[in-house]
């Protein structure tokens, strides 16, 4: 197995590109994929300030590293979710990455700052924990970005993540979610722009990137996600990818190019007002984040 | 396990309906599903003449039986594909079904009437055989329907078939195919209406229907289809259905209801002329069926 670029010994093959790479050319390949994604979807403009949502996992740390390599002005935000040892450990990886590179990492701790943890929120709502978790993350990433003057929030969603979400949305034809599933969502009143610069990299590639760069990350998956549908969709897509390399990329990028515009009219156009409790933009009187906090407090 | 309708002993459960049925109420359930599908999509009007494409398998024979039960005026068309023992045997089942019920079965034999078999066509085109087979079927079903005054051609595509085709079209976002994937396609100049009345029945149900009614059918799958992508998509959908019963039906019917109209504009609107060789409607000078015959002859 030889590097496609220099013909030296390769350390990884990427079947859907029908290519193998040595260490340095693999890192260059990943960087180029991210550069191209940012450029194609106009994710980050010149001089803009970027906030990366950092979980301590391979994707978010690789993303932070890649954006630095591309010379963007990027700070991190780590959210302590209160998921026992998993959260303690993931926080240590995020902090260590920032410390070793002298980068700025904002931190919010759900328990200390807002009086609840994700397991408590799941118990209070009697719904799968991923719902309360996603809601909390979105709210707080947006809030920190707006308050501290970041132009764009970037997240480490990779090709596998996005293809699995797309499959779930397509299997149920969730037209409103399909209307919003895009690598970049423009800013609108009260919300920053949001972007996913890793949609051209598979999770195997972000893991290899971290190993080759020497980034330590939390390897365990979130223990609360076990058995959720998303993992079933990933398994199914892995099987299809094995039978036909390139399936996931064709599925996701084909959607963005040829199908996504057809669902634009399904986007709900709620008029936004200001949450009476926290001041965040919301379609109701009280935003979903504040309603979640009330429910947990009422337990 | 008790019948949902009469509480007698059940012979089959249908997990996506969360129901079990005795023999008689299962047959009534299947009949009602087909009646409702025909009505919802206006597949067959009062007094119209129906041509059912009969392969000798469970789906097409169940469909012929069900349409008779619903008192439609239905004749059959069997196409001899020249696929060795498989074709010999499937022809026997089709003829025996028609003979035992005194039904009219038209027959065309590709080798005797058109000078080629599907294996020969596949060799000549150097493409998977399913392409030449589908092309030959569509052409000849249309031709017989138009020449003999049938209003609509119906085929035995079931829920599993249609969901697998849909998954393939969605994974590659084949917008033109998505624009045409519908339980009914209206007649247009030179083409009869085409309909799929079994889209609400899974293949396990059409098989059970045949067994319970006492219809003998060819159990083997076509030997030429082995290893094609369609079977991989069926396997993946079976796994998702196992994890979450109702997945296939929600996927297919959700597409028809909420997504299909969004792809209508992707349908190619070729202006049709008359094939210089056979007179069939075609977008070119010579239709694809006549071009296929020429290629086989040139071998």
Annotate the secondary structure layout.
The structure is a homodimer of 299-residue chains.
Chain A: E1 12-14, E2 19-21, H1 23-40, E3 49-54, H2 58-69, E4 73-80, H3 84-101, E5 105-109, H4 110-114, H5 118-125, H6 129-148, E6 152-154, H7 159-171, H8 175-180, E7 184-185, E8 193-195, H9 203-213, H10 229-243, H11 247-259, E9 273-274, E10 281-282, H12 288-297
Parallel strand pairs in A: 3-4, 3-6, 4-5, 6-8
Antiparallel strand pairs in A: 1-2, 7-8, 9-10
Helix pairs in contact in A: 1-9, 2-9, 5-6, 5-12, 7-10, 7-11
Succession of helices and strands of chain A: EEHEHEHEHHHEHHEEHHHEEH
The first-level CATH class of chain A is given as Alpha Beta
Low-confidence stretches of chain A: none
- In the sheet with the most strands of chain A, the strands line up as 5-4-3-6-8-7
Your description of this structure?
- Two copies of one chain form a homodimer.
- Chain A is of the alpha/beta class.
- Chain A has helices spanning 23-40, 58-69, 84-101, 110-114, 118-125, 129-148, 159-171, 175-180, 203-213, 229-243, 247-259, 288-297, and strands at 12-14, 19-21, 49-54, 73-80, 105-109, 152-154, 184-185, 193-195, 273-274, 281-282.
- Chain A is globular.
- The termini of chain A are far apart.
- The interface between A and B is medium-sized, with 23 and 22 residues.
């Amino acid at each position: 197995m030889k590097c496609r670029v220099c013909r030296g010994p390769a350390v990884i093959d990427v079947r859907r590109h029908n290519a193998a790479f040595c260490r340095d050319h693999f890192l260059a390949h990943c960087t180029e994929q991210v550069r191209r994604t940012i450029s194609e979807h106009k994710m980050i403009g010149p001089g803009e300030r970027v906030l990366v949502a950092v979980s301590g996992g391979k994707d978010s740390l690789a993303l932070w590293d890649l954006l630095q390599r591309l010379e963007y002005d990027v700070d991190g935000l780590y959210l302590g979710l209160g998921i026992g040892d998993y959260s303690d450990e993931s926080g240590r990886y995020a902090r260590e990455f920032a410390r070793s590179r002298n980068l700025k990492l904002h931190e919010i701790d759900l328990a200390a700052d807002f009086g609840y943890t994700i397991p408590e929120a799941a118990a209070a709502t009697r719904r799968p924990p991923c719902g309360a978790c996603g809601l909390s993350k979105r709210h707080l990433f947006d809030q920190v970005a707006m308050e501290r003057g970041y132009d764009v929030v970037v997240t480490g969603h990779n090709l596998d993540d996005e293809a699995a979400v797309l499959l779930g949305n397509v299997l149920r034809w969730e037209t409103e979610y399909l209307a919003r599933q895009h690598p970049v969502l423009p800013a609108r009143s009260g919300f920053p722009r949001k972007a996913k610069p890793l949609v051209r990299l598979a999770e195997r590639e972000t893991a290899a990137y971290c190993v080759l760069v020497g980034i330590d990350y939390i390897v365990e998956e979130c223990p609360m996600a076990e058995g959720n549908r998303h993992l079933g969709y990933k398994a199914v897509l892995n099987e299809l990818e094995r039978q036909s390399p390139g399936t996931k990329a064709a599925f996701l990028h084909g959607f963005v190019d040829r199908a996504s515009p057809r669902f634009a009219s399904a986007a709900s156009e709620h008029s936004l007002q200001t949450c009476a409790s926290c001041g965040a933009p919301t379609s109701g009187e009280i935003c979903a984040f504040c309603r979640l906090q009330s429910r947990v407090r009422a337990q």
